[in-house]
Amino acid sequence: MKGAYIFIYFLTISQTLSLALATLEDTCKKVAGSDFKFCVTSLQAIPSSQAADAKGLALIATNLTIANYTHNLAKVRELMSSAQERLISSPQVEVALNSCLASYAVGVSDLMSANAKIEAVDIDGALVNLSEAWKRPIECEDAFKKSGMGSLLVKEDGFASRLVTLALKITVLIIS
Ligand SMILES: *[C@@H]1O[C@H](CO)[C@@H](O)[C@H](O)[C@H]1NC(C)=O
Ligand SMILES: *[C@@H]1O[C@H](CO)[C@@H](O)[C@H](O)[C@H]1NC(C)=O
Ligand SMILES: *[C@@H]1O[C@H](CO)[C@@H](O)[C@H](O)[C@H]1NC(C)=O
Predict the structure, then answer these.
(1) Which residues lie with the beta carbon below 6 Å from any ligand 2 atom?
(2) CATH code of the domain in which 99 resides
(3) Which of 7, 61, 109, 125 has its CA 20 to 30 A from that of 148?
(4) Probe ligand 3: pick from 71, 75, 141, 161, max atoms within 8 Å of CB?
(5) Is residue 10 part of a domain?
């Protein structure tokens, strides 16, 4: 009798685990297309993603994007100080970096607003803020294009764009 309970217990746990994993992978299948692997890898890095529903995954994706935008802000500051130190700074690069700094700073507030609205299940409101946040890495790339210099943040802007796109698409799933 005791054995049977233990068996059922483990059966329940393993079913719960595979169900949760299916949720993460199913969610990534629905939203990520060719970025499926990136989606699974990014979200899996957060242990609570295993047991999260769409709302939980949206919050995790938004949080990851906040961390990434913050990382990019630090990178911009680092470029600004190294450009000044080495006197390699050109006015055009300076303008572009200032623009990126502003974009990512606003991007972090966009994402924090989005996060609060997802928590409150105001999904339409969250999508307004996420759409704004989505533009920030593009604005940064555009600033470099306008400067006529090559972008110093190709990798960072690309990674941030992929993450914010995931956050946006997973948030749409909550209401669809
Ligand atoms: C998101 O980040 C905030 C602040 O770091 C944290 O309190 C919260 O638990 C995180 N939420 C999720 C779902 O990871
Ligand atoms: C987020 O969106 C709301 C509209 O839903 C807007 O009023 C608010 O200013 C936005 N927050 C940020 C940080 O842009
Ligand atoms: C943010 O993006 C960079 C690439 O630009 C990546 O190397 C880094 O791991 C990411 N960091 C976080 C916290 O997501």
Answers:
(1) 109-110, 113, 125, 128-129, 132
(2) 1.20.140.40
(3) 109
(4) 71
(5) no
* Residue 161 near residue 73, CB atoms below 8 Å: no
Question: What was the pLDDT predicted at 175?
Answer: 86
Residue 149 forms part of a structural domain: yes
The verdict on residue 35 lying in a domain is no
- pLDDT score, position 82: 80
* pTM, 2 dp: 0.86
Q: What's the burial of 150, exposed, middle or buried (CB within 10 Å: 0-12/13-18/19+)?
A: exposed
Number of domains into which the chain is organized: 1
Calpha distance 118→127 (Å, rounded): 9
Structural contact between residues 35 and 161, judged by C-beta atoms closer than 8 angstroms: no
The pLDDT tens digits of the residues spanning 95-105 come to 999 999 999 99
